[in-house]
Specification:
The complex is a heterodimer of chains A (about 350) and B (about 300). With about 350 residues, chain A is an alpha/beta fold. Chain A has one domain: Aldolase class I (TIM Barrel, Alpha-Beta Barrel), CATH 3.20.20. Helix content of chain A is about 30%, strand content about 15%. Chain A has 9 helices and 16 strands. In chain A, the strands form 4 sheets. Chain A has an 8-stranded parallel barrel, surrounded by 6 helices. A 4-stranded antiparallel beta sheet of chain A has the order 5-6-14-11, with no helix packed on it. In chain A, strand 9, helix 5 and strand 10 form a beta-alpha-beta unit. Chain A is globular. With about 300 residues, chain B is an alpha/beta fold. Chain B folds into 2 domains: about 110 residues, Beta Barrel (Elongation Factor Tu (Ef-tu), domain 3); about 180 residues, Rossmann fold (3-Layer(aba) Sandwich), CATH 3.40.50. Chain B is about 20% helix and about 30% strand. Chain B contains 8 helices and 16 strands. Chain B has a 7-stranded antiparallel beta sheet with strand order 4-3-7-1-2-6-5. A 7-stranded mixed beta sheet of chain B has the order 11-10-9-8-12-13-16, sandwiched between helices. Chain B has a two-stranded antiparallel ribbon with strand order 14-15. In chain B, helix 6 runs parallel beside helix 7. The longest helix of chain B has 13 residues. Chain B starts with 6 loop residues before the first helix and ends in a 6-residue tail after the last strand. The chains are: A alpha/beta (about 350), B alpha/beta (about 300). The interface between A and B is large, with 37 and 35 residues.
Chain lengths: ~350, ~300
């Protein structure tokens, strides 16, 4: 089994910076004081319960349901360099215990994000992790450079895995491109970097290793599984864009498998996501090797769940006699491990 | 008209549901309204106090993964106990997984609900003729609209009681006439006719098969009224998309202000998922539109803003 990830001592290729920075190197987040505090590479979080990009809007939408300051962090909807209209509706369809979506990264672009949303997001009292997607490595790098002007951001999450736009898939299915985009973003900004990976690959561990070797502070496992819903009478896909990405409880065993495979073979902190809807689900992901979790689809039908899970996690860890989250991370034992 | 805020900000709320709440509540009543069509009553005073006509809420079966998501339902009416709002009624037609499950719900069933959501219909025209045009299950938002327009009931909180950012709504001045044009597939599907039998509301019916009212689409009733010298001063419309498209065209041709309430499928209802988008005009060019979320910028849109 791998070691816990309380500290990150791996050498960084980009430790030399050409220009001194006036802003603090550490992101501004609530001080980790409880047993819930976690550290993902350089990213410190007050607790390991995050909300997944694309399932929480720009947080504003959730204000009636969630006390943001209770969360470990908030990850708004993916931002792209320029505005994108997104895909034609229908954009979602419910499948058995799951949700198939093809939104198509509908957003107003980076500058509109900065102007319209960043101020609000900065005042939530929790770690702000900005999820970005570019069509090229240069676009990722340029977004990181622009966002580097805003020290209130705690980390960047790289969406190199959206199954619904051609720009995303190509990076996340290729270890070399994954490594390149991670290292370019890392050297372009001071932020901790999370690489959000696609499960639509032969070996997710290979991609995760490439991201880790390139300096990712953590990997987010996993984005949606590519799927299809068919309206057979009309001989048409149900979704306007054709294929979509599957999320929700239906994919939880698949996500757990991905987390476990990476945890057992790659030395990198993992943020687990995929069908989490209860404290038992959270504990399963931690035991399987995730150091933090994201609540995704459940935000749509149980909008205050994430906040409640923070309290339930504290109680569950206390019940297990754990003084910290890291004590339970990756404790899953397979037959023959001993 | 003594509305508290101006029309423009009502119709295009900035993507917020500041006074929504999520709760697990009890089914109080469940009644057949028509073929495959039912009315459910939920006890939820907080929701009942705040919701206004044309707004909606999401309903979900708790404790199960399938069906997973909530479904949106328009407010049919608010019911009172001891003179104060105690809960909400909504109508539905059995079409899918959740509505099939719902048809087996009985009093005492626990269900999850969140709302109020969306913008609602604008306050009706003062001293004019308001025509409500409904197709299929699209009649459900109009009971509350009609009752409010006729002064039979108030909806929403007094301005001073509203949450910051919420939309208070107390209508003092009313339209001179209110007419409901309601079309369905056939007589069996006409739902809630007894409820719509109220002082001052004129109801005109149509059915696709001619089993009740006029034989044909409900849009014919609208055209008939306009061409017969009974021109409405405003049209509120809810129904299947082809019908709303037709109503948009008719009202545009005759320069009648028209609002459409969309029935877009939704995953969350509060703006987080970006699935319920519709094409909303942003300028005069044919391609000058953007996808907007029906749940937070609608479901009610000025007809001329929508690109079908």
């Amino acid at each position: 089994m791998r070691a816990p990830f309380d500290t990150d001592t791996r050498p960084r290729k980009d430790s030399l910076r050409l220009t001194p920075r006036k802003v603090p190197q550490q992101p501004i987040v609530a001080p980790p004081v409880s047993r819930l505090a976690v550290q993902l590479g350089r990213l410190k979080l007050a607790n390991p319960v995050l909300v997944a990009s694309g399932t929480f809007g720009y947080a504003r939408e959730m204000q009636a349901f969630v006390r943001f300051e209770r969360l470990g962090g908030v990850i708004p909807k993916t931002v792209t360099p320029l505005p994108r209209k997104g895909n034609p509706p229908p954009r979602t369809v419910e499948t058995s215990a799951g949700l198939l979506n093809s939104i198509g990264l509908d957003n107003d672009g980076l500058e509109a994000f900065i102007e319209k949303h960043l101020g609000y997001l900065s005042g939530l009292g929790t770690a702000l992790i900005v999820n970005i997607a570019g069509r090229t490595i240069d676009e990722f790098r340029e977004m990181a450079v622009r966002l580097d002007e805003f020290p209130q951001i705690a980390a960047l999450e790289l969406n190199i895995s959206c199954p619904n736009v051609s720009c995303g898939v190509d990076f996340g299915i290729d270890p070399r491109l994954t490594a390149e985009v991670v290292s370019k973003v890392r050297s372009a900004c001071r932020f901790p970097v999370l690489a959000k990976l696609t499960p639509n690959v032969t070996s997710i561990a290979e991609i995760a290793r490439a991201a880790a070797d390139a300096g990712a502070d953590a990997v987010t496992l996993i984005n949606t599984f590519q799927g299809l819903a068919v309206d057979w009478r009309r001989r048409r896909p149900v979704l306007g864009a054709g294929f979509g990405g599957l999320s929700g409880p239906a994919i939880k065993p698949l996500a757990l498998r991905a987390v476990c495979q990476v945890a057992r073979s790659v030395n990198v902190p993992i943020v687990g996501v995929g069908g989490i809807a209860s404290i038992d689900d959270v504990m399963q992901f931690l035991v399987a090797g995730a150091s933090a979790v994201q609540i995704g689809t459940a935000n749509f039908y149980n909008p205050s769940l994430a906040e409640r899970l923070v309290d339930e996690l504290d109680a569950a860890l206390a019940g297990e006699g754990c003084a910290s989250v890291s004590e339970i991370v990756g404790t899953l034992q397979f037959p023959g491990d001993e | 008209m003594s509305q508290v805020i101006d029309d423009a900000s009502r119709v295009f709320l900035p993507g917020l549901v500041p006074d929504a709440l999520a709760a697990t509540v009890d089914v109080v009543e469940h009644e057949a309204m028509a073929r495959d069509t039912f009315r459910l009553r939920l006890r939820c005073p907080e929701l009942a106090r705040r919701i206004v006509p044309g707004q909606f809420f999401m309903v979900r079966a708790p404790g199960r993964d399938d069906p997973l998501l909530g479904r949106p339902f328009a407010l049919y009416d608010v019911y009172d106990e001891d003179g104060v709002p105690a809960g909400v009624d909504f109508g539905y037609i059995v079409v899918g997984k959740l509505t099939t499950l719902m048809s087996g719900w009985t009093a005492g069933e626990s269900v999850e609900v969140w709302g109020p959501l969306g913008n609602g219909f604008p306050p009706p025209p003062t001293d004019g003729h308001l025509m409500l045009v409904a197709g299929g299950i699209g009649q459900t938002p109009f009971l509350a609209v009609a009752r409010e327009a006729l002064g039979l009931r108030r909806y929403g909180e007094e301005p001073e009681a509203s949450a910051p950012g919420a939309v208070p709504r107390i209508i003092e001045h009313r339209p001179r006439r209110v007419t409901l044009c309601y079309g369905a597939r056939s007589r069996d599907y006409l739902a809630g006719l007894d409820d719509f039998r109220m002082e001052g509301l004129e109801v005109r019916l149509s059915t696709d098969d001619g089993t009740a009212g006029r034989h044909g689409f409900v849009t014919a009733l609208l055209v008939e009224a306009i061409e017969g010298g009974d021109r409405p001063d405003a049209v509120y419309c809810c129904g299947p998309e082809p019908m709303m498209h037709a109503v948009q065209q008719i009202c545009q041709k005759h320069a009648i202000p028209c609002w459409l309430s969309l029935e877009s499928p939704m995953a969350c209802g509060f703006g987080a998922c970006f699935s319920c988008v519709t094409r909303v005009r942003e300028g005069d060019g044919p391609d000058d539109w953007d996808y907007r979320r029906t749940c937070v910028e609608g479901p009610v849109f000025p007809a001329e803003k929508l690109v079908f």
